[in-house]
């Protein structure tokens, strides 16, 4: 096989034969062709890839390496590599019986290297569904490189295989075209981001440590015992502190494709290690960061996915909550929330009247699920009801009112549903008008604490879309990419147990410049300079302008959040040492790629993901260690009794 | 400050003013200027960087952000940002007394944003030592952004500061020009590597997991307790298994700038987390990988560091050991080893005569340290003697012969030294001739087991170079970059305790194709397809062609290495599933950058390194955790008694 020498790039280039997607005519027009496309056979034992052969190669002697995909009548073998498939023609003369014998009987997925001449297929036998369907290769030499055993599943059928088996044999799953596409696209998108950030805008790619000190409130951090007894590193959830310290250190345009760690519930399609595009800049304001990210995404956006129109729309957090019941609204479809408090205040529906009277902080919200009455069955509505009960107790549920009020709109503006008989005509008509309801629509109402009620209906809105799509009503086009900035988040939120305040995002987020004074008087009123970027209902990026004033940072940590500022001593000292104003953002790369690849899970855009349960079914990680193996770290597994 | 709007790139471009290193004339000649240099002020509050202003900017109103570096006579302030320094002229009129007052009295390292007009300096006042020395900025507005406290050390003098203090305040150390240069160069070199691998040669950047299963023999792996009682992840020392599995999975050209972990002795300038450029290819042979790496380094080589001549020279392991006493020889200087066994066999020097008679596996080696007798003092020679005694017992030391034999060459070919009176004239003359010795040279001899003796003298050779350089004899030019491939390593080495064999590198290394049969009969004779790349005496890359045959892999694991193959079950199964032939390499990026940056330690090319002791003096990592914090992981610190 060592005779399969790599051909020099330039000569292949001049002949315009190298890359299947390069049109030779276009090639000649390129000023600097060497860098403009990829030579995927350089340094290797093949002369060409299986996917690149065309009529123009007819007559050439080629060397190909790949997997036996398919054998037909001892005449043909389909050879596959990562770039496509080609039909091999087996020699039928006696002198080459060994070649025929080997290739016709090797188990599929065996690896071979072949040599042969490219020839046009006989007239009428071209396969128009194959990129290489005009040609075939008449094999003159073959080397069996590795015989495959029978595999646990066929590479071609892998989508029907259960995920555990796919993860256990991930190396086979990776051969499938979907994962090949996803991983290659991921690499390309990241590269385009790097070109934009480094080559065009002078950002510096800096690696930050992953063995770090535990951060305050880092409840989901993995711990790593050191060889010093009783001392531990932690795997950080993000490079947040380091990127701020880089700003203090004058690395004023930083980015990193950063591995981050979070020891958390994996059911929501998360991974214990994940990747973010981490960016930070000095001397920047909120709009500067947003604009950078918009243009970064526009630059890195893959071909065939449309073009991105800039700037992306923006929406304050409060509006998003009131219109969509979510801080990451999917704006590809309507079904917005309507505040119907005024209508329901004297509606005859006691539970709504009472809760509106109870507190000015309560409201009644409604959603019109267009044409849902035509599709949804009783069991769908029951599912929505069930789901609405799983919400927080501050919604109407606590008032003895169980879940959603459902009204179906009948011909002539009549309504049907448990609440229908209580509701007066003026109220009913006002409701129909506010919601622009027509026959066949389904109106869903809920009441209670304002934001919680919005959240409940926001969740129900998504569930309705899920249900309707199972009936073939397409609400969310996977080819549409709706970006949206969410801004003006609250800086602090009340703690779940009501004992005080916690940061809505993290304690380094700067207050809105107009609200700085309120930090000291009315912290719950303070808006932050945090911004999220939402794509089709998923939060794909989040960032903020950071606090660069040491005193403000100390006040927030100690006086508002009641945290021990001592463990952040190094950061506070850094802020006092000539810290520039700065801000940044992190893009969740796995999620972004999953949306771009139309993947059901981020596991489909990661080469070796962990399972739902956080395991690696392939290697068996995590695995038990013996006391002896733990000895150097001075830890042991807790005894059963404790 | 929000009035400091970013200026559009294009208009700045057309004016050719953006980047300090871009000559406007050259700019106009560029076909696609937008991607050809960096716009480091885009999206930011500044209009220009401090370092880019030139006479051509005279008359322009500019906005600058930076650190107060130096104040002079209430007339001038030097403002610094990450791109250079500029002289600010303070207004002297009463209307702007506040500006003068503020800028003249701010503590140095405070952060300010200023606005003003660029003006040519008065004739005769230009500062030719400053890039911006032809101009100054007359300040019309200033905003004090962040007042600095007095810093623990001056940014300008940081080289004299002890390393602990520098690491404790790493964010200040980073402001210094040396670390700024090193981190920015590192980012650029990596980017050029990516362009070569991805854009030119179609490699795919794939992230592999860092939470993995413990590997056999992974004694230096960090462990990470999971939330499943008694089960642990490990942080892998390299993506070795994953990259091989990617080859099985058809990702036939993989690379990754990979974070790796090794819990090891840091005294030898290592770090618990380090970075390697990790590459793997299918359908490749050894020379293919070597050629790829040669051209990769040539492409990524920084400007101003000379050009690399390809191919790099190659040397078999055995020759390197016999010529330089090292498998990573520094070929920038001579002082090679000479085998003087034949000369010493009947020399009259009993100890040498005896050990040569004892065993055919013993030899006597000599080095001529040119002109050392003119420089080295007794204490230097004693130091060498001391050091030679710390070597393995198989060297002559065990024969009662304490350390090195030293002979100084006197005028007329006489020699001086403890051995001189025993040595006969024919032997002495033969020795002088073999070593081309002249007056003033110092000859060092040692004997014992052949390779151990070579190793000892190899180490002494480097120590001699270290000593001579303290006397100003320059042997190793830091501007010379001597690359060398070391090949034909042994595949197996005897274990230290003599109990069997271990892999010289790792168990996945393929035997040399000529030696495959010897694996089953004489494993100690087998050469491997491992290759190291050495630069100026440091191993900066290592790789191999891997085993792709499951049966050979199983035989080596079970029969030669006597390891439990069960924990590598997934890999063995993958090899049976149509694994292509493959090979790869990993470049130690930290070490490569340290050599390129002429840094004394890899800590100087890492943004936030750990100290010698493995600590982060800034954050205090690693740090104690409470039992409650360890509870979720079901581990506790071992009690004192155990």
Automatic annotation (TrEMBL), chains A, B:
GO terms for biological process: aspartyl-tRNA aminoacylation. InterPro entries: Aa-tRNA-synt_II, aa-tRNA-synth_II, aa-tRNA-synth_II/BPL/LPL, Asp-tRNA-ligase_1, Asp-tRNA-ligase_1_N, Asp/Asn-tRNA-synth_IIb, AspRS_core, GAD-like_sf. The keyword Signal does not apply. The keyword ATP-binding applies. PROSITE patterns: AA_TRNA_LIGASE_II. Residues 183-609 form the Aminoacyl-transfer RNA synthetases class-II family profile domain. Pfam families: GAD, tRNA-synt_2, tRNA_anti-codon. GO terms for molecular function: aspartate-tRNA ligase activity; ATP binding; nucleic acid binding. GO terms for cellular component: mitochondrion. CDD domains: AspRS_core, EcAspRS_like_N. Keywords: Aminoacyl-tRNA synthetase, ATP-binding, Ligase, Nucleotide-binding, Protein biosynthesis. Belongs to the class-II aminoacyl-tRNA synthetase family. Type 1 subfamily. HAMAP family: Asp_tRNA_synth_type1. This is DARS2 protein. It comes from Branchiostoma lanceolatum. The gene is DARS2.
């Amino acid at each position: 096989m060592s005779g399969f020498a790599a051909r020099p790039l330039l000569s292949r280039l001049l002949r315009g034969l190298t890359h299947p997607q390069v049109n030779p005519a276009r090639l000649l027009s390129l000023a600097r062709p060497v860098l403009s496309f990829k030579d995927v056979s350089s340094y290797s034992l093949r002369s060409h890839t299986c996917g690149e052969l065309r009529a123009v190669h007819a007559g050439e002697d080629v060397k190909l390496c790949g997997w036996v995909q398919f054998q037909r009548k001892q005449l043909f073998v389909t050879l596959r590599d990562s770039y496509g498939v080609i039909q091999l023609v087996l020699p039928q003369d006696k002198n080459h019986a060994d070649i025929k014998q080997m290739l016709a009987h090797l188990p599929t997925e065996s690896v071979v290297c072949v040599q042969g001449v490219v020839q046009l297929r006989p007239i009428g036998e071209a396969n128009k569904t194959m990129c290489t369907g005009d040609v075939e290769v008449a094999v003159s030499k073959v080397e069996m490189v590795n015989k495959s055993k029978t595999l646990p599943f066929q590479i071609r059928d892998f989508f029907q295989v259960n995920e555990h088996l796919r993860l256990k044999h991930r190396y086979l799953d990776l051969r499938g075209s979907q994962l090949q596409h996803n991983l290659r696209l991921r690499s390309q998108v990241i590269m385009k981001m790097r070109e934009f950030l480094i080559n065009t805008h002078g950002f510096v790619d800096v690696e930050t440590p992953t063995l770090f000190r535990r951060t305050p409130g880092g409840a989901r951090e993995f711990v790593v015992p050191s060889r010093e007894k009783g001392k531990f590193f932690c795997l950080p959830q993000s490079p947040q502190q380091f990127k701020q310290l880089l700003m203090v250190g004058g690395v004023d345009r930083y980015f990193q494709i950063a591995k981050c760690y979070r020891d958390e519930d994996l059911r929501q399609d998360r991974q214990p290690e994940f990747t973010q595009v981490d960016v930070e800049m000095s001397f920047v304001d909120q709009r500067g960061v947003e604009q950078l990210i918009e243009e970064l995404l526009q630059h890195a956006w893959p071909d065939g996915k449309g073009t991105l129109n800039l700037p992306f729309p923006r929406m304050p957090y409060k509006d998003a909550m009131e219109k969509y019941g979510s801080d990451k609204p999917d704006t590809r479809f309507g079904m917005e929330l309507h505040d119907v408090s005024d209508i329901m205040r004297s509606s005859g529906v006691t539970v709504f009247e009472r809760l509106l009277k109870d507190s000015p902080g309560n409201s009644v919200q409604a959603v019109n699920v267009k044409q849902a009455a035509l599709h949804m069955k009783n069991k769908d509505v029951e599912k929505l009801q069930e789901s609405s009960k799983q919400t927080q107790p501050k919604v109407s549920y606590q008032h003895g009112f169980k879940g959603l009020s459902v009204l179906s709109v009948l011909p002539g503006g009549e309504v049907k549903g448990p609440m229908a008989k209580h509701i007066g005509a003026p109220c009913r008509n006002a409701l129909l008008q506010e919601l622009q309801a027509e026959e066949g629509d389904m109106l869903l109402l809920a009441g209670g604490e304002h934001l919680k009620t919005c959240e409940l209906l926001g969740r129900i809105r998504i569930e309705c879309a899920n249900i309707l799509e199972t009936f073939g009503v397409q609400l969310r086009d996977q080819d549409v990419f709706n970006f949206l900035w969410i801004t003006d988040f609250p800086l602090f939120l009340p703690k779940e147990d009501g004992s005080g305040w916690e940061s809505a995002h993290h304690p380094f987020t700067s207050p809105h410049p107009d609200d700085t004074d309120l930090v000291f008087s009315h912290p719950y009123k303070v808006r932050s300079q945090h911004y999220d970027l939402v794509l089709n209902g998923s939060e794909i990026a989040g960032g903020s302008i950071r606090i660069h004033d040491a005193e403000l940072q100390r006040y927030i940590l100690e006086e508002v959040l009641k945290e021990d500022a001592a463990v952040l001593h190094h950061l506070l000292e850094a802020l006092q040492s000539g810290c520039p104003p700065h801000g940044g953002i992190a893009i969740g790369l796995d999620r972004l790629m999953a949306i771009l690849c139309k993947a059901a899970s981020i596991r489909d855009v990661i080469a070796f993901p962990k399972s739902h349960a956080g395991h690696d079914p392939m290697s068996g990680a995590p695995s038990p260690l013996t006391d002896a193996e733990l000895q150097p770290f001075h830890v042991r597994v807790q005894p059963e009794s404790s």
